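Hi W.,

Here's what went into the run:
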Amino acid sequence: GAVVSQHPSWVICKSGTSVKIECRSLDFQATTMFWYRQFPKQSLMLMATSNEGSKATYEQGVEKDKFLINHASLTLSTLTVTSAHPEDSSFYICSARDPSGDYEQYFGPGTRLTVT
Amino acid sequence: AQTVTQSQPEMSVQEAETVTLSCTYDTSESNYYLFWYKQPPSRQMILVIRQEAYKQQNATENRFSVNFQKAAKSFSLKISDSQLGDTAMYFCARYNNNDMRFGAGTRLTVKP
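Here's what came out:
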């Protein structure tokens, strides 16, 4: 099956700093990638849809200036959490859709962000 | 809002027995896809089974099968011969028009 990687798998940063999370599709080209946030014992909440070569589409309530998404190539999307605060601590998961497939999304292993 | 509802926050089953997880959804689209994902403690999302809305036949993958009732917008997952490795969070999801929505999840525990 298709593989999606995320880097880093976990990161600790100080309040006020920015952190970048990478999402890569390893064996297919993904025109669309998705970023989710998951709080402990809760479901995945869609943050934004990332389209290669164009601006991301953010869900209502997600600050686009705080969560910067760049999808510069068909295999890489990045999420940058700017001026991070402790309330941004969460588990972030990306997924990618293989346009040649059957609408299945392939998920990365997730990134645990802790802001101190 | 087009939502996905899982009404069972937690369930348990004895090893080797059968359990059914419930899911209902809301959509105004005629063509969409439904999924069940498993999230073990590693938190890696794993596809369990998928169903295309235009197919009437219920999907089956080994010990996993679904009961898809399109008119009722219901999509339940049946796990037969439950194994200890089935212990995980299970999420129902609906996909259409580049939009994937997840239910709140059901935590399944398989007891030895």
